[in-house]
Amino acid sequence: MRIGVLALQGASEAHQRMLLGMGVAAPAVRRAEDLEGLDGLVLPGGESSTLLHFLAQDDFLPAVAGFVARRPCLGTCAGLILLARQVLPAQASLGLLDVTVRRNAYGRQRESHICHDNGSSWGDAALEMVFIRAPRIERCGPAVEILARRGQEPVLVRQGHLLGCAFHPELGRDTRVHQLLVDACRDGAVQGLDEAS
Ligand code: GLN
């Protein structure tokens, strides 16, 4: 299995290390050609406006959009913002995951923190969640499953083959969020947008 990690800016290396530790090849993706032959993709955290700026070069954005429309993808933090249908304050996005997100809603860089999910869906071991200038998921469409919450607020969601995560699962040792992506790739969860929405 090969899961690419978008490596234009931001937290790509920690995702690569985590996937490699799980026995999954995790090549860096920097150009459209790098998407060839991948089973899935991680859109990492970073700065979504900067990621958009780099994606706009060399027709890379349509290539990533085409890939993500068909193959499993995990978007974390800025990556979730890229996947979202609506971004507040308004910003361009791929628009594939039917959520509305508000950028920087959990505070500034110096207010970065670790907390745990509310324990309803992850059994005995709560999910450790690292929040760094994270987006808040303010609306979920009807096809969106909520997989983890912080208090009442959704912080990990899934719509068909797309996973969106407000926090940074790559910065801890808990592999369960990445495992969801690996499972989607293993199941060959290839869906058209019509099926996913
Ligand atoms: N605040 C960033 C943005 O709006 C996301 C932060 C992150 O990815 N840790 O893109």
From TrEMBL:
Alphabetical GO biological process terms: pyridoxal phosphate biosynthetic process; pyridoxine metabolic process
Gene Ontology MF terms: glutaminase activity; lyase activity
Active site residues of this protein: C77, H168, E170
Positions contributing to L-glutamine binding: G46, E47, S48, R103, I132, R133
Catalytic activity: L-glutamine + H2O = L-glutamate + NH4(+)
Pfam families, sorted: SNO
Keywords: Glutamine amidotransferase, Hydrolase, Lyase
Gene Ontology annotations for the cellular component aspect, listed alphabetically: cytosol; glutaminase complex
PROSITE patterns hit by this protein: GATASE_TYPE_1, PDXT_SNO_1, PDXT_SNO_2
E.C. number: 3.5.1.2
UniProt superkingdom: Bacteria
Entries under SUPFAM superfamilies matching the protein: Class I glutamine amidotransferase-like
Alphabetical list of PANTHER family matching this protein: PYRIDOXAL 5'-PHOSPHATE SYNTHASE SUBUNIT SNO, PYRIDOXAL 5'-PHOSPHATE SYNTHASE SUBUNIT SNO1-RELATED
Family from the record: Belongs to the glutaminase PdxT/SNO family.
Protein name, as recorded: glutaminase
Organism: Corticimicrobacter populi
